[in-house]
């Protein structure tokens, strides 16, 4: 993932809160589509990383433990971020579906989940860059 892709995804994460301000019933489906696209892109990124793992000499030689040990933090953060992302999106859409102009920030537990998800996003994008920078050492 290069800087351009990272900035586009960061822009999407930032602009979604501004889009919510102008939401009506007809636009709720478009925001749910954006959320779904974002979640599917994370899944595709995980699939690509595992496909790259399968093509390494280390994996083909049967030394899978080395790859898992080296990238377990990055893979774990990816799955945690995906879970937080889906959880936040589902909760936000269930809160806004019947009343699009509802003030959701007063909902107990929503702000902590939002902060944890955004912190997870920073870690996720950091470790995606880490995988990209170290990929030449693993012969991807």
What does this protein look like?
The structure is a single chain. The protein has 140 residues and is mainly α. It has one domain (12-134). The protein is built from five helices and no strands. Helix 2 (25-54) packs antiparallel against helix 4 and helix 4 (64-96) packs antiparallel against helix 5 (110-134). The radius of gyration is 18 Å and the shape is elongated.
Element layout with pairings:
Blueprint: H1 3-21, H2 25-54, H3 57-60, H4 64-96, H5 110-134
Helix pairs in contact: 2-4, 4-5
Total strand segments? 0
Name the structural class: mainly alpha
Count the helices. How many? 5
Question: How would you classify the quaternary structure?
Answer: single chain
Please give the domain count.
1
Specify the overall morphology.
elongated
Work out the strand percent: under 5%
Radius of gyration: 18 Å
Contiguous low-pLDDT stretches (5 residues minimum) are none
First-last Cα distance: 14 Å
SSE topology string: HHHHH
**Biggest sheet: strands, sense, closure?**
none
Q: Helix proportion of residues, in percent?
A: over 70%
On the 0-100 scale, what is the average pLDDT? 77
